[in-house]
Amino acid sequence: MDVIVINGGKALSGSVTTSGSKNAALPLLFAALLAKGEHSFENVPQLKDIDSTELLLNHLNCETYRTGNQLKVTVNEPGELVAPYDIVRKMRASILCLGPLLARHGRVKVSLPGGCAIGSRPINLHIEPLQQLGAHIEIENGYVFATAKKLVGDRIVFDFATVGGTENIMMAATLCRGTTVLENVAREPEVVDLARCLRSMGAKIEGEGTSTITIEGVDELEPAAYSVIPDRIEAGTLLLAGAITGGDVKVVKCVPGDLYALINKLADCGFEIETGEDWVRVKPCKQWRAVDLDTAPHPGFPTDLQAQFMALMTQANGTSVITERIFENRFMHVQELARMGANITPETQVAVVHGNKGGLSGAPVMATDLRASACLILAGLATEGETVVSRIYHLDRGYENLEAKLAGLGARIERRSL
Ligand code: EPU
After folding, report:
1. Alpha-carbon distance 156 to 212, whole Å?
2. Å from CA of 283 to ligand 1 middle
3. Which ligand 1 atom sits closest to the C-alpha of 302?
4. Catalytic residues
5. What is the Cα–Cα distance from 335 to 266, expressed in whole angstroms?
6. pLDDT digits (tens, 9 = 90+) for 121-157
């Protein structure tokens, strides 16, 4: 079992490069299923979730070859069109094969992903719109069985601006007969990236980045040659690592516009932030103010940075009320932060953080999900003494070499195998 050991209390400084986005890369790799032939993706991070995606693509008779951060995917005629439980249970995003396979082959069987640590995460907003496009769907024995002679475009209004639901239906609609209008869709940069990639494959899509996306179906798509956008959540985590240590950190090769909500919050706390075309710098700050935070769909504050921001608030001057509005159980880091001495009153989806600079102390803690792992590492960086974070397989799902990147900024951090 690997753990991350941190001896914190040191201000970070220097420049660090952002990797490709996990949550943009995953749908792009599933979009490959829409077109036969060789696809080439650049800037694909090396992560466990990408490995799981490759495993599923291999199972669907696709070949995958990685050279550094380039991933080539050759899509052949599939054998059985099944996404099995053993792969889907490791990664919920596997559900994103549903739309592409159904649209291209007219049938698919995908395991239900089930709940996960951060919430129940149903897939009704993937299933119902596909039914509206003409799919016949049955759920039996833990599997979704979907068939359709030909999907036909329609007007779909999402109850909630779901990221995965928007992506799945957008992919399916590229091969529908006629026009599909998707309303109340997610506006996340990862959705925009997927739309751009699909367009480069020959899809007719308009409106990405707004709440209405219009897709005119085409008969077939070309293989993709596409580069993944930088990971805004990783970039935000690195900025927060600089902030919580009172350091001076420049995060390069990122998209500052995608980090607007975080940059605004940091400025409200009293941090001085500089931005350039593709970089953001947080400057040293000795004492910052507590601010309240509500997570929200993009362009609101991302739920994927809530845990890391909470770590920052444990060191703030004053009390911060943090409300998680996307997932119903995304406060599992609270009890681990409390083990380090944080004073946080958690309620169902609200946590009241009583900031106390220097009030944390190193402790053995356990990561419960991907972003909670990052939160605990940030808390460890802020405190003197040794923090040992276990269950870091969660971290490896979504951060490429985080400990090496932090060490490059001067952090005393290492991975140990026990
Ligand atoms: N929801 C439903 N029904 C559905 C789909 C979603 O009720 O059919 C609910 C969910 O239960 C949740 C809310 O809608 O309460 C938002 O879910 P959404 O579908 O937007 O999330 P997702 O597509 O499952 C992606 C990211 C998550 C990120 C969320 C929100 C990927 C692979 N995952 O998940 O990333 O938190 O959007 O921005 O893109 C992470 O990287 O740590 C992570 C969890």
Report:
1. 10
2. 32
3. 38
4. 116
5. 24
6. 899 999 999 999 999 999 999 999 999 999 999 999 9
125 Cβ inside 6 Å of ligand 1: yes
What are the residues whose beta carbons fall under 8 Å from the beta carbon of 67, sequence distance 6 or more? Answer: none
Would you tell me how many other CB atoms lie within 10 Å of the CB of residue 358? 11
pLDDT value of residue 72 = 98
Q: Are 161 and 204 in contact (CB under 8 A)?
A: no
| In the block, residue with structure tokens 């001076």 | 248
- 306 touches ligand 1 (CB under 6 Å): no
Angstrom distance (rounded) from CA 122 to CA 177 = 28
Ligand 1 centroid vs 164 CA: distance in angstroms?
6
Q: Is the CB of 23 under 6 A from ligand 1?
A: yes
CA–CA separation, 201 and 219 (whole Å): 12
Check if the beta carbon of residue 310 is closer than 8 Å to that of residue 243.
Answer: no
Find out whether 73 and 39 touch, Cβ atoms under 8 Å. yes
C-alpha 161 – ligand 1 centre gap (Å): 9
Q: How far apart are CA 385 and CA 80, in angstroms?
A: 54
Q: Give me the helices (H) in 133-226, please.
A: 163-173, 189-200
160 lines ligand 1 (CB under 6 A): yes
Q: What does R_g of the chain's alpha carbons equal in angstroms?
A: 21
What CA–CA distance (Å, rounded) separates 243 from 322? 18
Q: Model confidence over 63-115: pLDDT tens digits?
A: 999 999 999 999 998 888 999 999 999 899 999 999 999 999 999 999 998 66
The residues that bridge with 321 in the sheet, in sequence order, are 352
